[in-house]
Design goal:
- There is one protein chain.
- Strands 1-2-10-7-8-9 form a 6-stranded mixed beta sheet, sandwiched between helices. The protein has a 4-stranded parallel beta sheet with strand order 5-4-3-6, with helices on both faces.
- The protein is globular, with a radius of gyration of 19 Å.
- The protein has helices spanning 4-11, 30-36, 57-70, 85-96, 116-122, 132-135, 138-151, 164-187, 200-211, 229-232, 237-244, 271-284, 293-305, 330-333; strands at residues 26-28, 41-45, 75-81, 101-106, 126-129, 156-158, 192-197, 217-221, 257-258, 314-319.
- It is of the alpha/beta class.
């Protein structure tokens, strides 16, 4: 275990550009909580981080952008699904620092310019909308773009070819642990159980809390049938520990990953997620998206209703944003 000050000092080794709107609020969800049978439901509003409608990636890019600039890269290439929040927030972060942005958008050909894709267009991203067939080798397509830029004398940064993007979000949310712990202390909260998308942000909170000796519980929600968690998060656990020189890191034993809320696949709205979206909107004036925050809230609602959560726990819904995606589901939601 280490102190908050020691952890803060260890994080200082990473350059950081501060542009996210922080701290984000920690709010009690009273009417929705009452509707599903709990008085202990909270939301950490990572949807309010600013940077083109907000989300957890704003924290990530506070660490990622200085790394890209310091390494001398001058074009950013990203491969993402056409629903992607990451694609949108990467475009915004690149714009803030004058970095040209190329988006390889999978399964986007002939899709309507709506939701995140509309914002990508407004942000001026160079979008390559791939067909289903082209998307099978999106990495190869991106490498061709990278090689073309190299021939033109550019120094492109293809996100999927580098290791730092795999840990930037973890570092950002180790840092966010300090903020969240202060908020819990201010509100006198203990017996904490955080629900979030099973990913790098959650792993950052797990790592931060372990190193600070905080007795927080975590549950991760899988939102994609294609997820390979060994490759996506767990392969970097020891690397994060070594890089930060901290006593503890995250592991598979730290939190369960629940796979029950994917439905037919990523980007396909399920009845339980639709219910969660409508309940949050009608009872709290809170918007959640169909792909990420929606499944997490659906899991919380389902588990509370079925008495799978200790009623004495303070349940914290980690709302990681994704709101533009709502507009891509107008038919399903109305």
């Amino acid at each position: 275990m280490i102190t908050s000050e020691i952890l803060k000092n260890k994080l200082k080794k990473f350059p950081r550009y501060r542009f996210a709107h922080l701290p984000t609020p920690l709010e009690k969800i009273e009417r929705l909580g009452s509707d599903i049978g709990t008085t202990n439901l909270w939301v950490k509003r990572e949807d309010t981080t600013g940077l083109v409608l907000g989300g957890n990636k704003a924290r990530h890019y506070e660490f990622e952008i200085p790394h890209i600039i310091d390494e001398g890269y001058d074009v950013l290439i990203n491969i993402m699904d056409y629903h992607s929040n990451n694609a949108r927030m990467t475009a915004a972060a690149a714009n803030k620092f004058g970095i040209p942005y190329v988006l390889i958008s999978e399964y986007a050909k002939d899709k309507p310019k709506q939701g995140n894709m509309l914002i990508d267009v407004l942000l001026g991203a160079e979008i390559h909308a791939l067909s289903s067939e082209e998307s099978k080798d999106s990495r190869g397509y991106a490498k061709k773009i990278e090689n073309e830029l190299l021939k033109k004398g550019k120094n492109p940064y293809l996100l999927q070819e580098h290791r730092f993007p795999e840990i930037a979000g973890i570092i950002a949310y180790i840092n966010a642990t300090l903020e969240l712990n202060e908020q819990f202390q201010e509100k006198g909260l203990d017996n904490i159980h955080i629900y979030g998308v099973a990913g790098r942000s959650l792993c950052g909170l797990v790592t931060g809390s372990k190193n600070l000796g905080l007795d927080w519980k975590f549950t991760g929600i899988n939102v994609s049938e294609k997820a390979d968690f060994d490759d996506y998060i767990f392969k970097n656990s020891e690397y994060v520990k070594e890089l930060l020189d901290i006593p503890s890191t995250y592991s598979k034993n730290d939190f369960p990953i629940i796979h029950d809320y994917i439905g037919e696949g990523y980007g396909i709205l399920t009845p339980s997620v639709k219910e969660a979206i409508l309940k949050a909107a009608k009872l709290e004036g809170l918007l959640v998206d169909p792909n990420y925050s929606g499944p997490v809230l659906a899991a919380i609602i389902d588990q509370i209703k079925n008495n799978q959560i200790d009623k004495n726990e303070n349940i914290v819904f980690l709302h990681t944003g994704g709101l533009p995606s709502l507009f891509s589901f107008s038919e399903e939601l109305t």
